[in-house]
User: Which sequence fits this backbone?
């Protein structure tokens, strides 16, 4: 069965520092992969997606992610974090057969001044 | 871009009340919509897949008689929590796929916070 693992429950970084959020997936075929961000009490906003092609994908708000098939990973990165980036981040994989999306447990990002 | 509207955003009601939550795709047609439940500080758990014109597909462990789903048009799905009790209090989020966009990501509503007293 498909699964998504986000090993870090929470991460704290200083404003201006770089960020990497980890995501590993388990899926039989090449997956469709997504990163979403959720602010408290809000719905989910899509940051970026990997469907095929270039394994380094660019998203909104300066985020990027790299699909590494050999490591079954899709880590999210940002070179310089802003205080407004503090939120919950979810990695997700699409079960293309049933069009369901499986979410990781999420990583809460704290940004310190 | 595509927008999914979810209403209401916040509901407080007494135990035993039934509550209806609407999910609308505003500028695209969605043959499939999804309903999620999210407990505090947890991830989204898929409750059911709503299919336009047919019965919803519920995930294992979700009571279909408790959580009634209706998807009567290509732009509207509703979730009714029947005879709600305090343990049903949660954040409910819907999402929709654009029927004409292939395997593109879901678009999410802003969620409904349900509090049962």
Assistant:
């Amino acid at each position: 069965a498909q699964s998504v693992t986000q090993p870090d429950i929470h991460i704290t970084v200083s404003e201006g520092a770089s960020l990497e959020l980890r995501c590993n997936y388990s899926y039989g075929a090449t997956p469709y992969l997504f990163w979403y961000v959720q602010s408290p009490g809000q719905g989910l906003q899509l940051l970026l997606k990997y469907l095929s092609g270039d394994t380094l994908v660019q998203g909104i708000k300066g985020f990027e992610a790299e699909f590494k098939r050999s490591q079954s990973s899709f880590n999210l990165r940002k070179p310089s974090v802003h205080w407004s980036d503090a939120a919950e981040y979810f990695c997700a994989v699409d079960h293309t057969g049933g069009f369901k999306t499986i979410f990781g447990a999420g990583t809460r990002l704290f940004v310190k001044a | 871009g595509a927008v999914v509207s979810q209403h209401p955003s916040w509901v407080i009601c007494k135990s035993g009340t039934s509550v209806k939550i609407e999910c609308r795709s505003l500028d695209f047609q969605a043959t499939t919509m999804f309903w999620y439940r999210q407990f505090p500080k947890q991830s989204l758990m898929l409750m059911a897949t709503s299919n336009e014109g047919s019965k919803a597909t519920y995930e294992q462990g979700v009571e279909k008689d408790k959580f009634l789903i209706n998807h009567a048009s290509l732009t509207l799905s509703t979730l009714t929590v029947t005879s709600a009790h305090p343990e049903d209090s949660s954040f409910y989020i819907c999402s929709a796929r654009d029927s004409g966009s292939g395997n593109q990501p879901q678009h999410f509503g802003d969620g409904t916070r349900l509090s049962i007293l």
Observations:
- Chain A touches chain B through 23 residues (CB under 8 Å).
- The mean pLDDT of chain A is 91.
